[in-house]
Amino acid sequence: MLYYTTTGTANQPPTCFLHGFMGSTSDWTQITDALSSNAYCIAVDLPGHGRSVQRPGYEYTMEGATQALADVLDDVGVQRCHLVGYSMGGRAALYFAVHHPDRVRSLVLESSSPGLTSSADRASRRDVDEERARRIRDDFPAFLEDWYRIPLFESLDRHDLVQAMIEKRASNDPDELARALVGLSVGAQPSLWERLKDLDIPTLACTGELDEKYVEISRFMAIGSRRMETVIFPDAGHNVHAERPQAFLSQLVRFHAEN
Asked: C-alpha angle 159/163/53, rounded to 5°?
């Protein structure tokens, strides 16, 4: 079983949270604590992250990881839940919703995408992530310092979160992260863009206004989807729930109340 935590009581509406690359269940603590009186919150460590390590090899794929998520929901006795995923966790959440739609009441995708449309782009991304995995194994502290200085995470500095994020991520096992990065790479999964039009689940695609790439992705996702809305958060970038937790929480509560 993947490692997971629960907050709140089982008689409340269940909400499951999936973190991003190098994250863990603790990434959601501020959100799940705030929701605990009105929701049954389940936070999961994805394969290779946190305490979900040395997992069977098939789990280090999108198909295997989402089947492992189904096993977690079975273990806590939840048939259908609100599902929230950030970045890599958002891709896993969307993959789960596409393949297990009867188990998802609503879907929140934070700074995420349905994947890459062309085989050439996927192959190129696999090469990039293979090289990143090598760097993680060779010098994880240096990789962390460099990772949180890339443009995608510039906005973390505006909220004084960079050093805390680096220290938190350093507790991961580098070899396990490398396995997860390669196996769960956006280059290793099939594109789900064409599946959006058939997804009959209320969906919220959100990101920060400073993350221009994912603002555009979120808007294109909504165009191709039947039941998707977008929310763009001011003064935030890729990691909205860390940078603007109260604003993210307000939208989450609003969306879940409506669905």
From this structure: 115
Q: What is the pLDDT of residues 145-183, one digit of tens each?
A: 999 999 999 999 989 999 999 999 999 999 999 999 999
SS3 percent helix, strand, coil of the chain, rounded to 5, is 50, 15, 30
Q: What DSSP designation does 61 have?
A: S
Model-level pTM? 0.97
Q: Token pair of 178, please?
A: 């490398």
Q: CB under 8 Å to 203, separation ≥6 — which residues? A: 97, 106, 107, 108, 109, 225, 227, 228, 229
Tell me the pLDDT tens digit for each residue of 191-221.
999 999 999 999 999 999 999 999 999 999 9
Contact 221, 228 (CB under 8 A): yes
Q: What are the domain boundaries of the chain?
A: 4-116+189-258
Q: Give, rounded to a whole angstrom, the gap between the first and last alpha carbons of the chain.
A: 29
Classify domain 4-116+189-258 at the CATH superfamily level: Alpha/Beta hydrolase fold, catalytic domain (3.40.50.1820)
How big is the chain, counted in residues? 259
